[in-house]
Amino acid sequence: MHSPRRRAVGTALVVSLGLSLGATALVAAPAVAVNADHGNTVVSADPVNTTPHVMNGSVDAITQIGNKIIAAGTFTSVSPPSTFGNTGDDVVRNRMFAFDATTGAIDPSFNPNFGGDVRSLTTDGTYIYAGGSFGSVGGNSAIKRVVKLTAAGAVVSAFNAVPNSGVNEVVVKGSRLYVGGGFTNVKSGAVTTTRNRLAALDSTTGAVLAAVNVSFAGVYDPALGGTTNIKRFDVSPDGSRLIAIGNFATAGGLSRPQIAMLDVSGATATVAPWATNRLDADHNNCASRFDTFTRDVDFSPDGSYFVLSTTGAFAGGANSGTLCDTTTRWETASTGNDPTWADYTGGDTTYGVAVTGSAVYVGGHMRWQNNPFQGDQAGPGAVAREGIAALDPVNGLPLRWNPGRSRGVGAQALFATSQGLWVGSDTTRLGGEQHGRIGLFPLAGGTSVPVVPAAALPNDLFVAQQTSGGVLQRRAVNGSGVPTGTPTTANNAFDWSTVRGGFLLNGTVYYGLANGTFNKRTFTKATGATGPQVAVSLNPDPDNGAQIPFSVSTMTGMFYDTTTHRIYYTVSGDSRLYYRYFTPESEVVGAQTFQADAGGINFSSTAGLTLASGRIYYGSSTDGSLRSAPFAGGRVTGAASVVSADGTWRYRAILVPNT
Q1: What angle do CA 78, 93, 103 make, to 5 degrees?
Q2: What is the DSSP secondary-structure string of 508-571?
Q3: Are 338 and 394 in contact (CB under 8 A)?
Q4: Which of 350, 372, 461, 624 is most buried, by the most CB atoms less than 10 A from its CB?
Q5: Residues facing residue 442 across a β-bridge
Q6: CA-to-CA distance for 466 and 495, rounded, in angstroms?
Q7: Residue 419 contacts residue 66 (beta carbons within 8 Å)
Q8: Domains of the chain with bracketed CATH
């Protein structure tokens, strides 16, 4: 959510261990129980031309049963795929309709006719379950807030459950239908059962199950008030964990401000040990109009992590430690307090989230990603992504995919299937085309994220000489990094003494220069030949040219870790090891600077630095020795040892090919 706050400039260095490796408020986007795993592919940026149009309101939920797409929300009118401008063939559909996933043909007989908004959909492959604030279905006012439908859209009368207040989320897993919202009891038949904001119902009868009875209570910030509610939740693919977000202070009597994980694997659900205080009122100063700034949550296809989206305005951005207006990744099995990464929009809301393995897709009314230092405008590092984006799952930086979407309030529903990514929203432009509130980015025609293998020894190390006019030398080393021959000249195409650290990835050398720029060239290992220099943009502030706090001109070494998608580097006269995020696919450099665990090693005299076979290798400006230390999980994990003491290892960069 962007707000008219005064511009705040934040270009100061952020050195933090806070991220571990290790409009008005509307209903947030629906979490989807299982998003399809797209492997290494990012969907096409060109939407298909065969989707129907929703003519008013918004699409807030999407699911699929067979080859039928079901969409729901606040709308009352839909139109065939090719006739957006012709209102004569519009069809009345109150809050839900169905259409053919391939042709887009609207199902003429599917018309449940909801008397109120539908906020969430789920399916077990045979039936459709819907939750919302609706007060009737098909004119029957006895059916409220949750309903079970056949694939043809008919009410299943054997299912009977009526929560006493709105339902924001429904997820079916096996024989359980989980429902969450603002209710305090659920009536099934003649029996009313107390359930505070979360319940599990028998998916056949609607009876309240005794197995899930965890009470959510309080509000995350008493100064803001509001009502206790679960805004959204998701269930892990294996059905063992449920992650809930919303306006609450406790779950099962334990402190869990705005986010709680339940263990639902056994006969009785319990609150899991997983917890964080990063969403509490003390750590955030989000806009007071929101009683909760959480918006959506989605598990990864393998369940190992989940991604959370938020609103709340800039609130100081990364420099304040807030998680307002961010997308964050959290490890399911983590015992830590912090997210793996946080991507800041600079004060705009992110709503829908869909994790597909290759990408974290997000939709909202954001304008930028990687924008942690400025509020309501692009700051140093900001990458333009209007209304929709695909993020690197490992570090949260934006991928190249950039179709664009008219922003509106936001893309409320993102749903990944084997066909691609379905997008539901409140606007009518998607990928530069007319798509009334729903569209599909197909997997066919998408792009593959390049595989970047880790470098290994034995190999040739390429080293940049320090003396003026220096060349790039080739030095062969064995599996332990010990030199096995004399250095030979590999490249003299330019003065390599001007280089300030670098690394090789898939035939491209990335390197800093003494003038503070970050650049790349093609590189051929066999010959040492390089192509012309190309600048890698650090995305300076478009208003004043301010750069991200990246000390390129004083670097003494640099390497890329393929596991964490980070550039690690050392700075002249500084004992610390730094890192920042980098995604080779988009060549976006992270705006924030972090300090790594150096394992007690002093890097102040580093003279070239690289990573291969799970060890860092670095030269020394003091004694010219080559040293090595184990490196794993984004940190130095052991003591350094001397690999070569011949006194020659004083370089501007040490490069090792990974292919």
Answers
A1: 50
A2: EEEEEETTS-EEEEEB-TTT--B---EEPP----TTT-PPPS--GGGEEEEEEETTTTEEEEEE
A3: no
A4: 350
A5: 420
A6: 10
A7: no
A8: 41-448 (2.130.10.10), 459-655 (2.110.10.10)
Tell me the two tokens of residue 215.
Answer: 């009470």
Is residue 320 helix, strand or coil? helix
One-letter amino acid at 631 equals: F
Token pair for 36: 């399809």
Question: Over 50: is that where the pLDDT of 357 sits?
Answer: yes
Helix/strand/coil for 648: coil
Q: How confident is the model at residue 85 (pLDDT cuts 50, 70, 90)?
A: confident
Q: Cα-flanking dihedrals φ and ψ of residue 68, to 5°?
A: -110, 130
Chain centre distance of CA 599: 29
Place of tokens 């369940």: 303
Q: Alpha carbon of 542 to those of 67, 583, 586: distances in Å? A: 46, 22, 19
pLDDT at residue 35, as a whole number: 87
CB 359 within 8 A of CB 393: yes
pLDDT band at 616 (very low <50, low <70, confident <90, very high): very high
Instruction: Give 548's DSSP letter.
Output: P
Q: What percent of the chain has pLDDT over 70?
A: 95
Question: Which of 578, 495, 580 has the alpha carbon at shortest distance from 536?
Answer: 580
Nearest to 471 by CA among 498, 488, 492, 487: 492
Q: Tell me what percent of the residues of the chain surpass a pLDDT of 90.
A: 92
Q: Is the dihedral of CA 329, 333, 338, 340 positive or negative?
A: negative
The tokens for 152 are: 């043809």
